[in-house]
């Protein structure tokens, strides 16, 4: 987690808005990642691609650099028609979610309100 990015967002939007956005981001991580995996599983490239782009953008907004990079790599693979195996994508995304939660807790981002 790049807290500099989050602090800039917080300064622009206000503490409460930034905290709510971050809480929503965390709450929607499983939904967004599940959508990527489901798109890969069902060979729905557009669904997986839309979810990957969405995840990349919101991750950038909160400073979740690893997830941003992971989603960006998935986006590139999907655009090239080289979707990873669903289990590999799920494992990678899940590992990133756990890292975000651990780092957010360590940096006190889960209790910013």
Count of alpha/pi helices: 5
Which fold name fills CATH's third level, the topology?
Four Helix Bundle (Hemerythrin (Met), subunit A)
H and E string:
HHHHH
Ends: how far apart?
Answer: 18 Å
Shape: elongated
Radius of gyration: 14 Å
Could you give a short account of the major beta sheet?
Answer: none
The total of beta strands comes to 0
Provide the β-strand percentage band.
under 5%
- For the record, the CATH architecture stands as Up-down Bundle
Low-confidence stretches at least 5 residues in length (pLDDT < 50)?
Answer: none
The CATH class assignment is Mainly Alpha
Main structural class:
mainly alpha
Total domain count: 1
Mean pLDDT: 91
Proportion of residues in helical segments: over 70%
Describe this entry's structure for a reader.
It contains five helices and no strands. With 113 residues, it is mainly α. Helix 3 runs antiparallel to helix 4 (65-79).
List keywords for this structure.
113 residues; mainly alpha; Four Helix Bundle (Hemerythrin (Met), subunit A); elongated
